[in-house]
Amino acid sequence: PSLKEVFKSDFLIGAALNWPQITGKDRAAAVLIPQQFNTVTPEDVMKAERLHPVWGTYDFSKGDQLIAYAKRHKLQVNGHTLVWHSQLPPFVHRIQNIDSFRTFFTDHIKTVAEHFSGKVQSWDVVNEALNEDGTLRKSIFLTKLGDQYIVDAFKLAAAAAPNTALYYNDYNNEQPAKRAGCIRVIQELKKAGARIDGVGIQGHWHLGKVPFKAIEESIEQYAAQGVKVAITELDINVLPTKVTGAEVGQHFKGDAASNPYVNGLPDSIRQQLAADYATLFRIFLKHKDKIARVTFWGVHDAQSWLNDWPIPGRRNYPLLFDRQGKPKSAFYAVIDAKLKK
Ligand code: G3I
After folding, report:
1. pTM of the model
2. Which residue is closest in CA terms to ligand 1's atom 36?
3. Which stretches of the chain score pLDDT less than 70?
4. Which domains are present in the chain?
5. Is 5 a catalytic residue?
6. How far is the CA of 44 from the centre of ligand 1 (A)?
7. Are 21 and 46 spatial neighbours (Cβ–Cβ below 8 Å)?
8. What is the pLDDT of residue 246?
9. Catalytic residue selected from 174, 216, 233, 247
């Protein structure tokens, strides 16, 4: 079975692609992408540090290659991301003058959104602008431009990419306090006459701790604001993120404290992953009228960023396909969530 076929009448099914997937070097992904997915998100190649390395000098080559790949395989594309405090090119941090900073901000959004206009179907316009308590993160954008920057970003994006769905994207924004902050952002945008079409719930969750109730409430509450919901970066981390006996950032040394499954994944974990994914997709299906898209943050386990975070070199198992690209029990559980009601 194929995810995109099974969920065809419900929502789009996507995966994040990085350079090996875009270029076909990743053979397992080359088979899976056209077979399983109908939308893709560039995991890294459309971030500011990649597109705009030197002030005023844009390098669209890798982003364009992703677009060409998507076109060849009839995939939609979600642009990621126009405004994010992280992965900014170094020059941005050196801009002292506020007017110059505003020029960078305006020019970046305009140039990038115009370049990809008609080529991407949606944009994560602003990414991760909120603190966990729902207040605005004290990012370089807030510091230099004030609260108004989110409205400005959406207005600039709407002008440059008129037929593109515009999203606000964040993690943990299914949690009540952050969700409330996110709803305030939507309301501010609407009040200011800016267009926002959807909210992205990233969906970086943890095995056995997926906040199902908060997720369902969030889908309902965001939809009640008149916007679509997308699950934009779905994965379920099976490894502990708080680790003892290893320094965060230090390469994995093979110790069981930082990876209890260093000698392989027990069946019980495999089954729990399948059960968590099944429960999630049952929620998504129940609210399919509110959900535009469900995108996984990667195609298969070998590609996942979670192999390198917070400890580089650990093996993680967060996705539906294994390192050889074979469907896991979680894959069949997701399919069954739709077919065996
Ligand atoms: O490609 C280079 C490689 O050539 C080089 O040798 C290596 C050395 O560090 O770096 C490689 O690039 C890394 C890239 O991942 C590919 O693996 C970057 O340093 C690293 O910063 C980058 O991390 C990405 C991270 O965002 C930061 O941009 C991850 O791929 C990506 O999965 C992650 O995605 C974010 C979303 O954009 C926003 N939400 C959270 C999510 C997870 O952190």
Report:
1. 0.97
2. 43
3. 244-247
4. 3-339 (3.20.20.80)
5. no
6. 6
7. no
8. 63
9. 233
